[in-house]
Amino acid sequence: MGRKRMTLIAIAMIGIITMTGCGSKEEEKLKVRIAHDNNVNTPLHKAFLKYEELVEERSDGKIDIILFPGSQMGSVQDTFEQCRRGDIEMSGSSTSNFIQAIPELAVWESFYLFDDSAHAKRVFESEIGKKMLEPLERMDLQGIGYMELGFRNFSNSKHPIIKADDLKGLKIRGYNPIQIEALGVNTTSVSWNELFTSLQQKMIDGQECATNSFYTEKFYEAQKYWSLTKHVFTNYLWYANKDFMESISEEERSILLECAKEAIDYNWQLVDEIEEDTLKKLEQEGVHINEVDTEERRKMGALMN
Question: How far apart are the C-alpha atoms of 33 and 240, rounded to whole Å?
Answer without folding.
Answer: 10
